[in-house]
C-alpha cells in the first residue's frame, strides 16, 4: 500500500477548525483510494509562540523535512500583532516557504456553478470563471534586502526592497507556461513595468522564456489595470503570473469571483516537499464559532494529491464531492444565499467526507 507522510500544522484562529475538516477528508480518501496517510502534527505561528516562544520551532522544521507534503491552516492574529517583528507568526510562514523552496504558488479561482449566487458580482460576469494565479512566492519585496526601520536624518525611515534575480523570474515563468499548456494556453503577466525597474526585468525575462512556449499566448498588464479587469471581465484570464506581493493581493480579489475567500486553495511547489494551504488567513473575527468555510483547505488536499502524490484522481474525487454537497444546497455562512441550507464548519467537513465515501 502506498504510504504518504503529511505534516499537519493547524496554526491559529480558524486554522485548527478547518484543518480538522481536511483531516476528515484525508481519512475518507485513505479508505476510498487504499492509501496510508500518516499525520505528524506540528506547532507553527502564534500557537508555537505560546508554547515555545518562537513561531517556527526546530521540532516543526524536523517534522516538515521528514514529510512528503505539508498541510497548513493559517497563522497570525491580534494576540501576536505587537510582538517584535522578527518573531511574528507570519514570519514562520515565510520561513517555511523559503525552507521548502516553494517558489511557485498556484492559486486556482474556479467558480462552482452551484455558487453563482454567492458572488457579489453579476452571474453573467462570473459564470464559468476559471483562473489560475501563479504567484512567485520566495522572492520579491517579501524577501529583498535592505529591509527594516532605520534612523535617518533625525527621523525614522521604513525600507523594503523589491528585488528579482533573472533565474527567479525564469523559473516562475516556466511554471506558468507549463500550467497554461494544460489549460487554455493563455498567460497574462502582471507587473508595474511603467514604474518599477525590477518588473522591467520581470517582463524581459517572461518574454525570453515565452520564446520556448510559442503555442501559449502571452500578454502583459499593469497591476492596477489587472485589479480592475479581474472585477470587470474575469473570463478574459486563464493563467496570471505575477510577483509575490501582486499575487497576494490579486488572488484575494480572484477569490471573491468564486463566492468567498473561504473557497480558494493553494499549492506551493518547486522544492521536494509541497506546501498546501488555503489562501485566506486565520480569520480572527470568526474563530472559535464553527462557522468558517473549510472548502479552501479541503480543496488544498486535492492539490496535494495531484502535485505531491501524482494522484490527480483524488483531486477529481474531492472536487466532485464538494460539488455534490453544494448541489444538495449545503452552505457555510459565507456562501449562504436564499433557499440554501446553512451548515457549520464541522457539518460541512462531515458532508464532504461522507460524499467521498459514496462516490
Ligand atoms: P483573513 O483572510 O484571515 O480574513 C479576511 C476576511 O475573510 C475576514 O472577514 C474573515 O472572517 C473572512 N474569511 C477568511 N477565511 C474564511 C473562511 N475560511 N470562511 C469564512 N470566512 C473567511 O485576513 P485578515 O483578517 O486580513 O488577517 C487575519 C490574520 O491572518 C492576520 O494575522 C494575517 O496576518 C493572517 N493571515 C495569514 C495567512 C496564512 O496563514 N496563510 C493568510 C492571510 C492572512
Ligand atoms: C497569504 C498571506 C501571507 C502572504 C502572509 C500571512 C505572510 O497573506 O498566504 O496570502 O502575504 O503571503
Ligand atoms: Mn494573502
Structure description:
- The protein is of the alpha/beta class.
- The protein is built from twelve helices and 14 strands.
- Helix 7 links the parallel strand 8 and strand 9.
- The protein is globular.
- It binds nicotinamide-adenine-dinucleotide, 3-isopropylmalic acid and manganese (II) ion (MN).
- The site of manganese (II) ion (MN) has 2 residues, from helix 9.
- Its cofactor is Mg(2+); Mn(2+).
- Belongs to the isocitrate and isopropylmalate dehydrogenases family. LeuB type 1 subfamily.
- One of its GO terms (molecular function) is magnesium ion binding.
- Keywords: Amino-acid biosynthesis, Branched-chain amino acid biosynthesis, Cytoplasm, Leucine biosynthesis, Magnesium, Manganese, Metal-binding, NAD, Oxidoreductase.
Q: Which descriptors would you attach to this protein?
A:
alpha/beta, binds manganese (II) ion, 359 residues, binds 3-isopropylmalic acid, Isopropylmalate Dehydrogenase, globular, ten-stranded mixed beta sheet, binds nicotinamide-adenine-dinucleotide, 2 domains, magnesium ion binding, single chain, two-stranded antiparallel ribbon, 21% strand, 40% helix
Topology:
Layout: E1 3-11, H1 15-33, E2 36-41, H2 46-52, H3 58-65, E3 69-74, H4 89-99, E4 104-110, H5 123-126, E5 130-136, E6 144-152, E7 155-161, H6 166-181, E8 186-191, H7 197-210, E9 217-222, H8 223-232, E10 239-242, H9 244-255, E11 267-269, E12 274-276, H10 295-307, H11 312-327, E13 330-331, E14 341-342, H12 345-358
Parallel strand pairs: 1-2, 1-3, 3-12, 5-10, 8-9, 8-10, 13-14
Antiparallel strand pairs: 4-5, 4-11, 6-7, 11-12
Helix pairs in contact: 1-10, 1-12, 6-7, 8-9, 10-11, 11-12
The structure holds nicotinamide-adenine-dinucleotide, 3-isopropylmalic acid and manganese (II) ion.
Residues 14, 18, 74-77, 90, 93, 260-262, 277, 280-286, 292-293, 296, 334 line the site of nicotinamide-adenine-dinucleotide.
